[in-house]
Write a structure and sequence with these properties.
The protein is 55% helix and 12% strand. By secondary structure, it is an alpha/beta fold. The chain has a single domain, classed as 3-Layer(aba) Sandwich (Rossmann fold), CATH 3.40.50. Helix 2 packs across helix 5. The longest helix is centred in the middle third of the chain and has 28 residues. The chain is globular and about 50 Å long. The two termini are 22 Å apart.
Length: 206
């Protein structure tokens, strides 16, 4: 089974690339979605987070208050690293389980959509990694349209990996400064190239 990892900084279009892959028929395992699942109700993960960061980051229903957590961790990279370490184990476990399920179903290719490309649980699971990049001002413009403040955008970008660090781990870089159609064409071309050389056909690829 060919495991394709897609990563990139906030506002780069990483999730859009994963969606394009899903549209042509590739299953996608979304690390952000899993993160929401493990923090969306009381459990081992939320208990650990409460222990480390305090009860104010837990809502009355026992789930993680994501806004308060974001306000805290994106002010200080040390907090972000602590948060990542706690959630990471739960996310890895779920991702590995879903990969095993996909193999049992004889899935030929699958996508991992991961914002923070850690070595264990992402790099070591992927046969190939694509990073999605865009100019900083374009990324900021996209995020402003989502309703984020410029202050919030800049502090999040500051604590994330640099474009150079993403490039170092990637086999391919997808540039996303243009239109959706241009991005889609890049993704389709790369999928045809990489899946084709492995003898994998996807009916949904034009």
């Amino acid at each position: 089974m060919f495991v394709l990892g897609i990563t990139g900084g906030i506002g780069s279009g990483k999730s859009t690339v994963a969606t394009i892959c899903r549209t042509v028929g590739l299953p996608v395992i979304d690390a952000d979605q899993i993160s929401h699942e493990v923090t969306g109700e009381p459990g081992e993960t939320t208990s650990l987070l409460k222990e480390v960061f305090g009860s104010e980051i837990i809502r009355e229903d026992g789930a993680l208050d994501r806004q308060r957590m974001s306000d805290l961790v994106f002010h200080d990279k040390r907090y972000l690293d602590k948060l990542s370490a706690i959630i990471h184990e739960q996310v890895i476990e779920t991702m590995e389980e879903r990969l095993r399920e996909a193999e049992k179903k004889k899935t030929k290719a699958i996508v991992l959509d991961v914002p923070i490309p850690v070595k264990r649980g992402f790099i070591d699971l992927c046969d190939q990694i694509w990073t999605v990049s865009a100019d900083p001002e374009i990324r900021k413009s996209r995020l402003l349209k989502r309703g984020m403040s410029i202050h919030d955008i800049e502090r999040r970008m500051q604590v994330q990996m640099s474009p150079e660090e993403y490039r170092e781990i990637a086999h391919h870089e997808i540039f996303n400064n243009g239109t959706f159609q241009e991005l889609e064409q890049q993704v389709h071309d790369l999928l045809k190239q990489e899946l084709g050389m492995r003898g994998i056909s996807i009916p949904g690829l034009p």
